[in-house]
């Protein structure tokens, strides 16, 4: 119901990558809420943007989003809302392949290299929320 930053930090400190932290009073789409457990079970990280905002408020984790095109910013904004690539494709009337290319481009422009210990999608969203 509210953000408990100490709990959120402990939750995210694990190496599993499959975690979720949603705020029940901020769930706008019931379908997103109902699919969240399946997404976490599939290894995804599902976070409410407010949780991320409070965790990283004032930490200086900004990245230069100026390199992103308007369409890339739109895609990143949808990622920040917790949308999957297929949901982004549906919402933007793009093919799944096009969305994947945009996501890959976003990672490159934000200099987020593949890493075993980090989720590039979450890191990109954190930069978006901190901008």
CATH domain class of the largest domain: Mainly Alpha
The portion of residues forming beta strands comes to: under 5%
From the 3D coordinates, which CATH architecture of the largest domain would you assign?
Orthogonal Bundle
* Integer-rounded radius of gyration: 14 Å
Outline the low-pLDDT stretches: 58-63
Mean pLDDT: 82
Full CATH superfamily name of the largest domain: Winged helix-like DNA-binding domain superfamily/Winged helix DNA-binding domain
**Which percent range fits the helix content?**
55-70%
Provide the spatial order of strands within the biggest beta sheet: 1-2
User: Outline, from the CA principal axes?
Assistant: globular
DSSP summary: helix tally = 7
Q: Biggest sheet: strands, sense, closure?
A: 2 strands, parallel
Structural class by secondary-structure content: mainly alpha
* Number of strand elements: 2
